[in-house]
Predict the structure.
Amino acid sequence: MNLKNIPIADPIRELKKIKNFNKSFINELNKGRFVGGENVIRLEEKLKNKFSVRYVVTTNSGTDSLILSVAELNLKRGDEVLVPSFTFFATVEALLHFGLKPVFVDIDRFSFTVDEQSFYDNVNKKTKAFLPVHIFGKTSFSQSILKYCKENNIKIVEDCAQSFGSKYNNKFLGTYGDIGAFSFFPSKTFGGIGDGGCIITNNSKVYKNLTKIKNHGQKNLYDHEINGVNSRLDSLNAYVLSMKLDIFDDIASSRVNLYNYFNKNIDNPYLTKPFFKDEEVPNYYSILVKKGRNKFIEYLNSNGISTNIYYKKPIHLQSAMKKYPFAAKNMKNTNYVSRKIVSIPFFPFMENKEKQKIVETVNRFEIV
Ligand SMILES: Cc1ncc(COP(=O)(O)O)c(C=O)c1O
């Protein structure tokens, strides 16, 4: 079988599933409306309906969604926030911008989500917020943690950058906390044609503040009521995202089907497969390589299969965190997973011959 290199993600395939995409896009482009306007309003309305929430504020990245969400918690410098170290740097960046103290919680070795015991080991009177990361599309809290946070007035911002469409107990992730922060980065489950994101909430104060803050604190044009930033979603990106939302059920089921195919057919004693619950939509397919990760990566790459490591260096080991040595105590599982994990190509509408090639190649891997 002679196939081109199989990429780790391939968002163009999703665009190809949208009816008359090229024609509609060029038509929209020629209207010359690039910032704000109807496209953004329409997308926010559609997302509100999808999540059954009162408010959606689009932003220009998942990073901004997190920063704006954390700003709305109104915490004091030095307040502690529980957060996993096994995530993309943006999650923690948001806390550091406000002088908050990240306190890292460890993850479970096989689900990669927040370890409940580690949550309870680290939570204390100074804990003012919890920032769970629904990594790879998986739920990163439990009923017990949610109840504890509620009873102890610990605010929750959910990092949903990788969990668009995933549910927990029949309710969308992002709707459990005070605010859900999403990314529309192109390789995400719901990705656009550039940077983008949104926050979802039922809190009218948060909504009113953020609609202003993301647009230079303006109430009306050139009427700046408060200080702000520019974190607007581009109009053309909103247009494409809106069309993508119309086919999101197909995107989600294609992801779930690919996950089921991989989990049914990948069979190799050197590897541990990921697992997702029925309600979750996988964003990435990440395998633990018990021994010889570099060999596995070289072997796949030399056979035309791309790989990526989410995440090779957990946040507590990043140079930027040297000033915060107190933030990480027992990171045993986080360290273990970071040394063993590899992601293989995973995207909707993958062709059968690509799926087969990935499975056959992965299954042939052995340490000699
Ligand atoms: C878990 C997590 N949080 C936050 C972000 C930041 O999103 P963005 O790249 O859209 O700024 C990402 C995306 O890379 C992510 O994976």
In short: Residues 61-63, 87-88, 90-91, 133, 159, 161-162, 183, 185, 195, 197 surround pyridoxal-5'-phosphate (CB under 6 Å). The chain is about 35% helix and 15% strand. Residues 43 and 242 are 5 Å apart (CA to CA). The radius of gyration is 21 Å.
